[in-house]
Amino acid sequence: MTTEHERRADRVREALNRYEAPLIRYATRLTGNSELARDIVQDTFVKLCTADWAKIEAHLAPWLYRVCRNRAFDVLKKEKRMQPLAEGQAEARPDNKPAPAAVAEGHEAEDMVHAVLAELPEKNQEIFRLKFQHELSYKEISEVTGHEVNNIRYVIHTTLKTLRQQLQGRLDPALGQ
Amino acid sequence: MRLDKADPKLMDYVLGELDTEEAEALATALQKEENKDAKALVEELRGVAETTRRILHEDDGEPALSDLQRATIFGQVEETLENVVAGPARWGRVSTWLTVAAAISVVAALGFSNVVYNYAPLGMKMAADSPPPRLPGDEVGQRLRRRYIQSEHKLPRLSNESAVPGGSVLVSPSPEPAPAETPAKPIRSGFEIHDLTMTYGTDNLYAKETEVATKTSPPAAADALLEFGIESGEPQSIELGSRYLLQERTDIAGQNGPTLDGVGVPNVEQRTRLGTKADFTDDVSVYIEFDGYNNWGETFNVDVPANLPMRTPALEEEDGDGLDVGNMSRKAKLSKRIIPKDVVIDAETARQLESLGYLDDSRSLGDKVASKLPTDWTPLVDVTIPFNNGQWQWNTPDTKNTQIVGGPGSETYVKVTGVKPFSEVKAEPLSTFSIDVGTAAYSNVRRFLTNGHMPPADAVRIEEMLNYFDYDYPQPTDHHPFAVVVHGAPAPWDQNHRLVRIGVKGKEVAREERPPANLVFLLDVSGSMGDANKLPLVKESMKTLLINLTPRDRVGIVTYAGNARKVLDLTPCSERSVIAQAIEGLRSGGSTNGGGGIQMAYDMAQSAYNPEGINRVILATDGDFNVGNTSHGGLMGMIEARAKSGVFLTALGFGMGNLKDSTLEQLADRGNGNYAYIDTHAEARKALGRQLSGTLYTIAKDVKIQVEFNPNRISHYRLLGYENRALAARDFNDDTKDAGEIGAGHTVTALYEIIPRGTGPMPLGVDPLKYSETGTPGDTLQSGPEVALPAGPYLVGEDGVAIPDPAYEWLTVKMRYKQPTGSKSTKLEVPLLHISGDLRETDADFRFAAAVAAFGQVLRNPGYRHPGNFDRILDLARPATKGDADREAFLDLVITAKTLSN
User: Fold this and answer.
1) Beta carbons of B303 and B333 less than 8 angstroms apart
2) How far apart are CA B343 and CA B278, in angstroms?
3) Which residue range forms the structural domain that includes residue A52?
């Protein structure tokens, strides 16, 4: 019993160390509230404790993101019901703005990427972030979000294409000088 | 291999999405001269992807869970191991409607074109050989816990679901053959389900109904319909609200079937149930519900639309309320509404339905029926069912009620009389009290109950219980900072009495419009604060608050234990990390000297006093002031003096054991402030997150209410709660008398129980009285609750406009308030012209508040603790929760109290 306990605890600890921060970021992005996000991530890991390890081991990352995502939507739905619309949405999304260090080295690219992302529907933003921020594969993103792989591939391709064009648009005049 | 620049594989390659073999082949090809362009593109795409990655990387210092949260997680590891033996609780979700078991039988005779719907309580008109359906018990709580057990064993197990490539499921008529002993022509009960095809979407999680094939001709007997509720040929009644197991599948791995996740991960278990429910609007809804437990660790509970065509012309179908999906929900729900033509619901059944939550709507029954039913519908529903059929075990309030002072341990409460007696209008036509927006008593009561104790009577402050909940009162539309609404209806517990609700709503102020705040935290870090539900929770609460503050706000921290210490000078919230670090570094230890800390905190707040902004000291403590300035009076005096400077106080009570509830409440009163009891993180989020503007931003102070009762219409009254908020009648107009504050968006509710009709002389000369005794309408007011009292005759005003005759008014609510920084009060008045004849004509907020007040009275008075009373509170509250989580939790609390009082 003790060894089983330790093994479980170790697995959870390992997962926690690796995915804690990314999941909090992800949930923060989904809910717009980092405190809520922490609660959601807590719930996610609580769920991990009860999950059948053999079944999820191979999919650990998408499993965690998936559970986290579902939980976030549950919570959001509940919160939405309980509070006037404005509050949840009004809360600033913490990191749409470029980090100070990045601003110095090229805020144009920075702004452009954020601007392009901001134009995307939320669903596509999420997909794109899961790819480039959380480094999940198409397949994994599909497992997390339930969208089809082809759809995900399409979203990522078109978005990246747009970014490429935009970057060229920015760089070309500069190069010309 | 020549590569095309437009080949999307190039991008997949850059993104690492190709399998090894393909990637290697492509890498080799890219080295060739002919693919120079493609190579350049790949390089460029790499650059773009890399830049994107870098930009999206969030440099936010690795957000982490709190220690408490981590502890919770690892605590779960232990628990899980323990549960392995007992089996994990998989069916984790409890739908409220599951608690329903109204004894209404729905009998459909199969094969006839006329289906007789017989809505009668207890299946009175069922087929003669049918066993009596079960009574809807009082054990709502028990049902809640038992979930799915009912009926499953009665039902034939059907294996008629076959997987169809492409992810569709066909529920078609091929049930298992009926048992051999089935009589040739059994009387069957149940709905008929024709072909039903459902397809699960693959692009999201939700089951979608895409096609329903309806058979137009009556099916042959062999064209077996999906039946249920039949066992051994015995007709069974179908209890509305119960679920019937249609099929169950386990371990369906490998099937290319309807995996609910749409990504080919098979379900481990899935159950399909047929659910029925009824209410006055929808009459009968039948729907199929899937519960899937899959190896994603998530329990899916999907209410899938069951478009169940009914074969009989006596029925009409109405479309459901649409798929509630979107990408955000795992619940899809659409129920087909089937409206039988001939429905008779008698009063008792209706009452049961109501009590079981089928009228969860603020509209009255009549409205609902009228607005939802087809135009040719003739409702035979008896809509005037009295709520109050004399079943409340409600004694006349007794002034001599013995009261308990002090709860377990060393907690103390101010002694107040148990249940307030009625005042006679002719002796005291004025009732005056200070407003209170505190909510602490409710959290405190909840703590007692969830720990298995009945709360001491004095810990139960009805006004704080009422005000714990949010109510939808209208916002002010004039220049006043708040609006007042007054409504009346029969008292649920006594049909000869009326309940009058005064609802006050403070103006909502958007976050951006809130003035900047200077907040000084005064934190008790004495040894007694070391428990997990104290200082650690304080820290969590502060972090919650921090998130909700804007960069214009400033936060300072003073701690006190043996000595007061300045931990953080007022720091703008733009320097969040500095503040967060200071919070992180807080430790507990030592004894308590509250007095010194209070001085220092107020000094800090005053040093940066902003006349345009919010200036507030936030005290977080378990109230255990045991060193230094402990003289109760001295402390109060000090706070009161400092409050005059314009710095307001918020008192946050933490922990349990030595909570000095009374001290904190009084501190908050004296300090122009508010008081909240925080026992959980959720509670912190409520007070310091959602309701932050209200907690911080006072929009009116010294708010007093005075009610003048019209002796022509009312003989007696009593105010429910507000015992220690009472003011003398003359204090109302006295601007030097301190009273409560209202924050932005706050709602305040006060309930009066009144006894209609009254005559007699009216001595008293405190305020010029508005009502004279000339009118005689009182004589007609003895009638029962179904009679809506007409508004009085009209008088003709100066300009010829009709104005209601004040002699017919019931009462007038007068309010006085001051602007937050003002010293002169403003008055407003609202008369009550009309009292509704039926409690159910009132909005859900009214009924819910009535239930809370009833609960408070039951808790305060052991003599009221009859199990039936708890049930009636539930009956009253359940249809009025409006889906609000706090209100749902209230139901659980009542159930807990009921269990404890047995």
Assistant:
1) yes
2) 12
3) 1-95
In this predicted structure, the answer to whether residue B848 has a pLDDT above a threshold of 70 is yes
What does residue B872 show for φ and ψ, rounded to 5 degrees?
Answer: -70, -30
pLDDT at A169: 59
Same domain, A134 and A65: no
Number of H helices and E strands in chain A, helices first, is 9, 0
B555: confidence class by pLDDT, cuts 50, 70, 90: very high
A69 and A125 assigned to the same domain: no
Please check whether residue B603 is in contact with residue B641, taking contact to mean a CB–CB distance below 8 angstroms.
no
| Contact criterion met (CB < 8 Å) for B56 and A45 | no
pLDDT of residue B657: 54
Residue A65 pLDDT more than 50?
A: yes
Per-residue pLDDT reduced to its tens digit, B19-33: 888 888 888 888 888
Cα dihedral across residues A117, A119, A125, A127: positive or negative: negative
| A60-82 vs A2-31: helix crossing angle, rounded to 10 | 50
Cβ neighbour number for residue A67 with a 10 Å cutoff: 25
Interface test with B, best of A10, A12, A46, A52 (most B CBs within 10 A): A46
What whole-number distance in Å separates Cα of residue A149 and Cα of residue A138?
A: 6
Number of domains comprising chain A: 2
**Of residues B273, B299, B269, the one with CA closest to residue B288:** B273
* Residues B307-351: tens digit of each pLDDT: 332 222 222 223 332 222 221 112 222 222 323 323 334 455 455
Q: At what angle do helices A122-132 and B36-56 cross, to 10 degrees?
A: 100
Residue B721 · residue B418 · CB < 8 Å: no
Chain A: closest CA distance from residue B263 (Å): 6
Same domain for A15 and A77, yes or no, is yes
Residues in chain B: 902
Give the separation between CA B745 and CA B474, rounded to whole angstroms: 10
Q: Which of B700, B728, B684 is nearest to B504 (CA)?
A: B700
Domain at B511-696, CATH class? alpha beta
Q: How far apart are CA B20 and CA A58, in angstroms?
A: 19
The closest alpha carbon to B14, from A131, A60, A168, belongs to A131
Q: Is the ipTM of this complex over 0.85?
A: no
Instruction: Please give the interface size between A and B, counted as residue pairs whose CB atoms are below 8 Å apart.
Output: 183
CA distances to B178, B235, B247, B307, B335 from B193, in Å: 16, 17, 15, 9, 14
| Pairing between β-strand B614-621 and β-strand B517-524 as defined by DSSP bridges | parallel
The first and second tokens of residue B792, run together, are 């009085």
Q: Which residues of B touch A55 (CB under 8 A)?
A: 295
* Topology of the domain comprising B423-508+700-901: Immunoglobulin-like (2.60.40)
Judge if A88 and A152 occupy the same domain: no
Asked if A143's CB is within 8 angstroms of B263's CB, the reply is yes
- Contact assignment for A35 to B77 by CB distance below 8 Å: no
Do residue A70 and residue A113 come from a single domain?
no
Q: Are residues A1 and A74 in the same domain?
A: yes
Summarised one tens digit per residue, pLDDT across range B763-811 is 233 344 556 544 444 333 333 333 333 444 455 555 555 556 666 778 9
For residue B315, give the nearest of B106, B114, B111 by alpha carbon: B114
Contact, A158 vs A125, CB < 8 A? no
Which residue among A95, A111, A126 closes a domain? A95
